[in-house]
Amino acid sequence: MRTRATRRGLDLTELGLGAAQLGNLYRVTTDEEAAATIDAAWHSGIRYFDTAPHYGLGLSERRLGEHLSDRPRDEYVVSTKVGRLLVPSPETAHERDEGFDVPADPRRVWDFSRDGILRSVEQSLERTGLERFDILYLHDPDDHFEQASNEGIAALIELRDQGMVTEVGAGMNHAAPLAELIRRADVDLVMCAGRFTLVDDEALADLLPLAADRGVGVVAAAVYNSGLLSTPRPAPGAMFDYGPAPAELIARVDRVADVCERHGVSVPDAAIAYVLRHPAVVSVVLGARGTSQVHSNVQRAETSIPAALWEDLVGEGLIADPMA
């Protein structure tokens, strides 16, 4: 699989595996499914794996570390995130966590302080069994941006300067604060979720030009926009940005599908290829549960896209030209 280099020399495969499903996102992922997912990703050439304490209250980190433990450490890249500390919560252990099908013990506590960052990294190393991480992201610091963009990122840069991590940055669902973080701090990578896709070009206004100018890599996540772009045509009840897709947006995706079909490709094929056209983007991270989903993602990523598709989509006013 093709790779793209980051500013400090990490080689990220153009397709990365997002490990939220390994944390039982929405429903149980069995241990067998988790192992098969990582094996399929590895044998398909994927070498970038992204996780977080948030995913299944540490379950994703534990599973990822376990199933990578027999692979050569210098052959893969792992990113995890900081900002949500996991603390014991025996009083809620009988409940199920919101969003992940795991017991609600521990619980999450927002903490972007220096001490919180260092504790979070220490706990993540213990859960994964790794000796180091390649990338550390501030995780969704929207409501804690001042502390995260000062004390939090300073702690990550301190770890980078000590050689404990290679690259640092943040992962968010909004483009503007990621751009502001780039202006404020010496970050290497940002993960932009859902704001640079076939139907949402928010990141093109500011984030992507700034990242390209500063040499900051962009990892694109949520390129299917919660499922709207994951099928050849929008399915009944299609979701967009964690909620029901508006009718006018579904109609727009249907028009995108018309153009894609004329060129012999699907909407999901184009969704992946579109973001990789921008020079600042270093990888697209897609979640998967099981072998078939991994293989589907890889097949879509490897689909050859004719240049005429982009010309037609731009010409019909359906997408912005990321190269303009």
Structure description:
The chain is of the alpha/beta class and 324 residues long. It has a single domain (3-315), classed as TIM Barrel, CATH 3.20.20. 38% of the residues lie in helices and 19% in strands. The protein contains 11 helices and 14 strands. A hairpin with a 2-residue loop joins strand 12 (239-240) and strand 13 (243-244). Helix 1 (31-43) packs across helix 2 (59-68), helix 3 packs across helix 4 (145-161) and helix 5 packs parallel to helix 7. The protein is globular, with a radius of gyration of 19 Å.
Write the layout of secondary structure elements.
Elements: E1 3-5, E2 11-13, E3 15-18, H1 31-43, E4 48-50, H2 59-68, E5 77-82, E6 84-87, E7 107-110, H3 114-128, E8 133-139, H4 145-161, E9 165-172, H5 175-184, E10 189-193, H6 202-205, H7 207-214, E11 217-221, E12 239-240, E13 243-244, H8 247-262, H9 267-276, E14 281-287, H10 291-301, H11 307-315
Parallel strand pairs: 3-4, 3-14, 4-5, 5-8, 8-9, 9-10, 10-11, 11-14
Antiparallel strand pairs: 1-2, 6-7, 12-13
Helix pairs in contact: 1-2, 1-10, 3-4, 5-7
Pfam family, one: Aldo_ket_red
Domain NADP-dependent oxidoreductase: 14-307
InterPro entries: AKR, NAD(P)_OxRdtase_dom_sf, NADP_OxRdtase_dom
